[in-house]
Write a structure and sequence with these properties.
Radius of gyration: 14 Å
Strand content: 15-25%
Strand order of the largest sheet: 1-2-3
Helix content: 25-40%
Pfam family, one: Flavodoxin_NdrI
Distance between the termini: 26 Å
GO molecular function: FMN binding
Protein name: Protein involved in ribonucleotide reduction
Largest sheet: 3 strands, parallel
InterPro entries: Flavoprotein-like_sf, RNR_NrdI
Length: 118
């Protein structure tokens, strides 16, 4: 399965990305156990634009279980704040099994008619 992907610009001076269609956000958690600064700043900038927030349909989180209760905290925060489902979490870079799970899960997720809300 081929999945289109776009990298959110790391620096504010780079051209902004505007979502043209519904998407699922995959993001890491930064910041360790206390959870401060867990959401990458470029993701915060990206989601400040209502055009991007309006197209967000779900979140997938990457994290480190050494963060304890902050494991995949960024994904949990974004999912809760934007009222979208947290679809999957994986450790560090993930495994081939994680890749297969995400691909299968996204294929099923996008088949649901409610995922293309206006």
């Amino acid at each position: 399965m081929h999945l289109d992907a776009t990298r959110i610009p790391l620096y504010p001076k780079e051209p902004a990305v505007i979502a043209a269609a519904p998407f699922v956000l995959l993001l890491p958690t930064y910041g360790g156990e206390d959870g401060k600064h867990s959401v990458p700043p470029q993701v915060l900038r990206f989601l400040k634009d209502h055009r991007n927030r309006d197209q967000l349909r779900g979140v997938i989180g990457a994290g480190n279980t050494n963060f304890g209760s902050a494991y995949c905290l960024a994904a949990r925060k974004i999912a809760a704040k934007c009222d979208v489902p947290l679809l999957y979490r994986f450790e560090l870079m993930g495994t081939p099994e994680d890749v297969a799970n995400v691909c299968q899960g996204l294929e099923e997720f996008w088949k649901q008619p409610s995922r293309s809300r206006p």
